[in-house]
């Protein structure tokens, strides 16, 4: 076993033996809506049901999209729904040097390259490797992580066995052309820094997981356990977050919104639970939480 493989095996053992630590990581680019509440509730309940801790991290790297006061509004909305987090809230904008160090590690090992392609030049099947031999035009470049050939497999807590061809997915951007560190790199560094053992999130992020696992292995970081929840979609199959119906959550209606989130997560909350407080509703849901109820389900449709 080589050094990288040995380190990966040790990291896997460390995750398996560590106390459960989950997280919810919203971006302050708009208010929380029902789809994001479903993700937050699923993550929270999985942690609490298993006796674990639950963190909140604000992913605010893309400063151009961040709304002033957006992070505070997100935290107030979570609190209004009884979703109490453990410890201090982390902000990605305060952790830039850690992403720079990780990128330096990758670059020193020849695992990155500079790319002059625009977003429009990405093909439907993924980035085709146009600049692997060097940028094809002058000007600003993005930095991409050079993925391997072969298939990356992992076992998802809800979606079962998953397999992805990394070359078909393409070399992922880890630093954007404008110098902003990309989500894929930041989330990997942050999960390792915080000691996250379990990532419970929406299935719209399932396709990002192989890139993140590949980056974890390249940086010799532990790989958390992943569970991807059903994504809330419109009757026309559109993602709720991109819909005109993705209305901001109303803190005054926290109870009914929690009940709706539990229903979308197929937790079968009893009708009388609608009359309970958010705290009582979450106590019931923590005791009765079951991933089996949505196992293999990638989407749940919001009623008309």
Any chance you could write out the topology, listing elements then pairs?
Elements: H1 3-17, E1 21-24, H2 34-49, E2 53-58, H3 70-80, E3 90-91, H4 96-108, E4 112-115, E5 142-145, E6 151-156, E7 160-165, H5 166-169, E8 172-175, H6 183-194, E9 198-202, H7 209-218, E10 225-229, E11 231-233, H8 254-264, H9 278-288, E12 299-301
Parallel strand pairs: 1-2, 2-3, 9-10, 11-12
Antiparallel strand pairs: 4-5, 5-8, 6-7
Summarize the entry for a quick read:
It is built from 9 helices and 12 strands. By secondary structure, it is of the alpha/beta class.
Provide an overview of this structure.
This protein has 304 residues and is α/β, with parallel strands linked by helices. The protein has one domain: Rossmann fold (3-Layer(aba) Sandwich), CATH 3.40.50.620. It is built from 9 helices and 12 strands. The protein has helices at 3-17, 34-49, 70-80, 96-108, 166-169, 183-194, 209-218, 254-264, 278-288; strands at 21-24, 53-58, 90-91, 112-115, 142-145, 151-156, 160-165, 172-175, 198-202, 225-229, 231-233, 299-301. The strands form 5 sheets. The chain has a 3-stranded parallel beta sheet, covered by helices on one side. A 3-stranded antiparallel beta sheet has the order 4-5-8. Helix 2 crosses helix 8. The radius of gyration is 20 Å and the shape is globular.
């Amino acid at each position: 076993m080589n050094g990288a493989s040995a380190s990966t095996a040790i990291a896997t053992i460390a995750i398996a033996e560590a106390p459960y630590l989950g997280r919810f990581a919203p971006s302050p680019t708009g208010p929380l809506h029902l789809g994001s509440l479903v993700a937050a509730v699923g993550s929270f309940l999985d942690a609490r049901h298993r006796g674990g801790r639950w963190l909140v991290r604000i992913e605010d790297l893309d400063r151009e999209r961040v709304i002033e006061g957006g992070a505070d509004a997100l935290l107030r909305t979570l609190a209004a729904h009884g979703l109490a987090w453990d410890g201090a809230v982390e902000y990605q904008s305060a952790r830039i040097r850690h992403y720079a160090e990780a990128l330096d590690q990758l670059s020193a090992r020849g695992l990155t390259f500079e790319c002059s392609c625009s977003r429009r030049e990405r093909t439907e099947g993924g980035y085709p490797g146009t600049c692997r031999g060097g940028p094809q035009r002058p000007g600003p470049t993005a930095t991409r992580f050079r993925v391997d050939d072969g298939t990356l497999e992992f076992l998802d807590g809800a979606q079962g066995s998953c397999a992805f061809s990394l070359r078909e997915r393409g070399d992922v951007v880890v630093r954007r052309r404008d110098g902003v560190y990309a989500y894929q790199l930041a989330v990997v560094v942050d999960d390792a820094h915080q000691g996250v053992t379990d990532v419970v999130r929406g299935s719209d992020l399932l396709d990002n997981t192989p890139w993140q696992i590949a980056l974890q292995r390249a940086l010799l970081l532990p790989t958390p356990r992943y569970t991807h929840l059903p994504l809330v979609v419109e009757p026309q199959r559109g993602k709720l977050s991109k819909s005109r119906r993705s209305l901001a959550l109303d803190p005054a209606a926290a109870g009914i919104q929690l009940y709706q989130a539990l229903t979308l997560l197929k937790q079968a909350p009893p009708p009388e639970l609608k009359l309970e407080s958010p705290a009582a509703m979450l106590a019931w849901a923590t005791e009765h939480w079951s991933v089996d109820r949505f196992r293999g389900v990638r989407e749940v449709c919001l009623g008309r």
